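Progress against Task 2.4 (sequence-to-structure conversion) is shown through the following example record, which the project officer requested during the mid-term review.
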Amino acid sequence: MLNYEIVVIGGGPAGLAAAIEAKKNGAEEILVLERDMELGGILQQCIHNGFGLHVFKEELTGPEYAERFITELKAMGIEYKLDTMVLEVSKDKKITAMNREEGMLSIQGKAVILAMGCRERTRGAIRIPGGRPAGVMTAGTAQRFVNMEGYMTGKKVLILGSGDIGLIMARRLTLEGAEVLGVSELMPFSGGLNRNIVQCLEDFDIPLYLQHTVVDIEGKDRVEAVTIAKVDERFKPIPGTEKRFDCDTLLLSVGLIPENELSKSAGIELDRITAGPTVNEAMETSIEGIFACGNVVHVHDLVDWVTEESKKAGRNAAKYVAGELGGSEEKISVQGINGVRYVVPQEIRPENLSGKMEFMMRVDGVYQNVALVAKNGEEVLRSVKRRHVAPGEMENLVLDFESIESKDLKNLTIELVRQEGA
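Structure tokens generated for the chain above:
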């Protein structure tokens, strides 16, 4: 049995930031477990720039962003194991893992931080009709082929879904010489950041077909054509609106799901909206001493937000190991209502509230001229105006609990309220 104070599962941006912050806050025996052959996670295949604007105040590529944390992790002497697959996490924080060199490993942690990231929805998850030829793959798979393996995925490409990875690959494949025929999106709005719509589609004259979905895939050995059609308000294809594209590749960018098989097997409570663990103000899950951060909790649109959230998890895991983190039974629920789909954290413990605290959330549609309003029952704690909100852009709201410490907190809600004249 190997014993550590803190075991971090996942060596991507979340796991790296959490491990480093835990070390800075007094934890000594830390182990990072990564299933890939190198640290850095998904950032290693994200060779485009736009990372680090908030954390480092400069524009970096994904590998450059990751390398800064990898260098710091190694300089601090934090132990890590690569090519190591975690098979199980128990409620008493015992981890079963394996790799080629050491075989089966039993690792006991005083605290565990889950930082496994997320995965893409596949064709099977969305039930696309048509044949099953080669050439249908997720946008992330195509990104790895092109950026890391050196293989082009096709010459004429259609993309289903306007998530950020799909938008970025539309630009990437165009720059590599492919013809991107368009991006089809089921919803009446894009699921990606507005800057990616502008820089990846509009700048390259790639059409975006909103409220359209794939209704047929043709081809025996390889994709030969894809047909899309407009959908009604119930997302059913409208006959007569079909558009047929001759192409050899269909990329899927139809959403990300937190990687939570380990969370489920450990018995951790999951949020039905995010599909990730419910967490409290310390990023601690429903099992004491097991923390979670990054895309395993909820899918972020910027890696900078993953880093900030993961620092909080690492800092509080170190406090937990040192016996400095309060663990009272008194809990206050935090909910998103009236246009706010979810809020993270989902609960807070009053004894651990001090100073300012940030809440992250996503809305359920595109709204103009609204306010994010935090309430304690019917009492308004804070209202922040927003000119524009959309599902593809994560929102945040900061509450200063020093100023509301005397109030009787019962349950917190955050909602959208339309402004006068909107």
